[in-house]
Structures are given as C-alpha cells and as structure tokens.
C-alpha cells in the first residue's frame, strides 16, 4: 500500500482562503479552475509577505479551519478536491495507485493524545501553549 502524506493543513490554506475571500468571494459556489488557484496562491503569498493585516487574517483562517469553522472547512475541502483532480491525472498517467492521508487526518486524534500526555504529566502548560520538554 502506497500512502501519499500531503500537506493539506496549514498556512498555505489560510492564505488561499483569505485571497479567495478578497478576490473571488463566490468561490464556494463557483470554484475557479486549478490554474487560477495557482495564480491565487502566488498572489496570496505576495500579499502575506507584504501585508501584516492579511497575514493575521491568513493565520486566523488556519485556526478557524482547524477548529471546524464551516466557511473555512468548505473552502479547504473545495481547494483539496480541485487539487486532487489535477494530481489524479498525473497518477493515472504514471499508473500510480495510492491512498492519500493528509495532515488533517490527525486533527481529531490530537485532543485525546494531548489530554493523555497532560494526565501522565508529560505535557505541561507553558506561556499558553501545551509543551513536552525533553530532558537533556
């Protein structure tokens, strides 16, 4: 079994959702072509690097996405679906069969693991973050 561990859960999606919200506000009902997504990503990255407000919006979109915000989740699902269609063309041409497991696969598994680490005294709160400190 071949597994493709794709990066499907992070800042790039926060940036894309932010860029699409600004420049293609009906993207959930009228998805752009994949070529447009590449252009949107390039524009989003430029905006992210140059505009602190947009950067904050992109980061907030990631938090919303990972917290289950309906708009961000729908946007993310649409973006992943469009990407998969293009990936599949290449996989088919190369006769590759695989199972996709993205970073997002692990999201529902995190809370129980963090709770267990805290209960066992392995993870501790530090400056608002849950941390595991490795002894030197």
Task: Explain what the structure shows.
With 136 residues, the chain is mainly alpha-helical. The protein folds into two domains: 3-101, no CATH class; 106-136, no CATH class. 61% of the residues lie in helices and 9% in strands. The protein has five helices and four strands; from the N terminus they run βααααβαββ. It has helices at residues 11-23, 34-50, 52-67, 70-93, 107-119; strands at 3-4, 99-100, 123-126, 129-132. The longest helix is centred in the middle third of the chain and has 24 residues, at 70-93. The termini are far apart.
Share of residues in helices: 55-70%
Distance between the termini: 38 Å
Strand order across the biggest sheet?
1-2
Mean model confidence by pLDDT = 89
Q: Which strand-content bin applies to the residues?
A: 5-15%
Question: Can you summarize the main beta sheet?
Answer: 2 strands, parallel
Based on CA atoms alone, the radius of gyration comes out at 18 Å
Uncertain regions spanning at least 5 consecutive residues: none
Helix and strand element order: EHHHHEHEE
Structure annotation, total helices: 5
Blueprint of the fold:
Elements: E1 3-4, H1 11-23, H2 34-50, H3 52-67, H4 70-93, E2 99-100, H5 107-119, E3 123-126, E4 129-132
Parallel strand pairs: 1-2
Antiparallel strand pairs: 3-4
How would you summarize what this structure contains?
The chain is mainly alpha-helical and 136 residues long.
């Amino acid at each position: 079994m071949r597994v493709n561990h794709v990066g499907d859960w992070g800042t790039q999606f926060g940036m894309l959702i932010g860029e699409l919200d600004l420049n293609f506000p009906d993207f959930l009902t009228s998805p752009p072509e994949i070529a447009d997504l590449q252009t949107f990503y390039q524009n989003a990255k430029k905006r992210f690097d140059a505009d602190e407000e947009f950067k904050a919006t992109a980061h907030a979109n990631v938090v919303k996405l990972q917290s289950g915000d309906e708009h961000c989740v729908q946007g993310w699902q649409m973006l992943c679906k469009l990407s998969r269609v293009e990936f599949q063309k290449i996989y088919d041409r190369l006769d590759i069969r695989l199972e996709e497991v993205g970073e997002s696969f692990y999201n529902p598994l995190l809370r129980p693991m963090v709770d267990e680490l805290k209960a066992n005294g392995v993870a501790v709160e530090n400056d608002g973050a849950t941390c595991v400190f490795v002894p030197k």
